[in-house]
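Whether sequence alone determines local backbone shape is best considered at the level of individual chains. When preparing material for the folding task, we compiled for one chain both its residues and its backbone structure tokens. No coordinates are needed to read the tokens, only the vocabulary itself. For completeness, the protein is quoted in full, as a sequence line and a line of structure tokens:
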Amino acid sequence: MKKSSFGALVVVMLCFFTMGFVDLVGIASNYVQSDLGLTDSQANIMPSLVFFWFLIFSVPTGMLMNKIGRKRTVLLSIIVTVLSLLLPIFGNSYPLMLIAFSLLGIGNALMQTSLNPLVSNIVTGNLSSTLTFGQFVKAIASFLAPYIAMWGATQVIPSGELGWRVLFPIYGVIGIIATVCLGLTQINEEPVAKGSNIIDCFKLLGKPFILLCFLSIMCHVGIDVGTNTTAPKILMERLGMTLAEAGFATSLYFIFRTIGCLSGSAILRKVPEKVFFAISVMMIIASMIILAVAQTQWLLYVGIALVGFGNSNIFSITFAQALAHDPEHKNEISGLMIMGLFGGTIFPLAMGFMSDAMGTLGAVIVMIIGAAYLAGFTLKIKK
């Protein structure tokens, strides 16, 4: 890799770190629920709202990239993300947090749609491996969020009146740094096919494999967001932990997702994508069984670790498979795949209603359905 390309890749990886800010919605929604006394259904509206905007903005963002380029679209996405992180500094009322999480979702929809294909302008060869490393960097931000929130909540640092919300300005500053660095970095982008519009983009879902990839990402994100928000509640319900104690479950999930992304980046250079995908899905299914029935702390931690590791590479493999299936429409397919993150809206809503009716077991049942689909999709993966 050329020195200039390596420098650009470092900056892009910093952008992947800012992409991870979206995962703070899990621990943040739990703190807001505790502060305001919300039900599970009310609290789960927050992560659902974040991922709702992927349905609205992902495909138009693919069209936007055709007009202004991928790099400029990423810059726009980080600016919107930083704006979302400024609002919680002024309070944590329910309406204000809903607005903040909406902007966070819009910014992340723009970023995920444009940043992943931007990587293909920098690296050649194994795209899935590089995207997996990007997910590793993203997972670091996801992993740190609960600790920063707990840090502020316990007033270990002089966070003023912010408490757990101190994580928002910290991540906001990093977002500003990423904006400046990317703005100063030159990235050459290939010419894009002209004439594509939203209707043409949606027609790509008529290709069976593209549709299957889209549904795979929906289930992956549903399980990701679902575990992020539900794991602490499982520990609180079954073991009587406080929210501060149970918050470790979110960190544990992201620790193993981070490990999974880092190791997956190397494994995917040696092991066929289909084989590694199958192993990952088996780990997810095993974890769901554990989370459904376990009553002891160590076994629940094993279940959370398994889903973290297993779910860590599903997105990268699916995304790379979709781009390879139709490389002439990378921008459009990227928009469609990121629209699949709408699963982060559907799953938490369904899990919230099931949890209100059946406890955390109901939430796990919803995730089991997603895991079952991934098992079926494994058979369709190429090579």
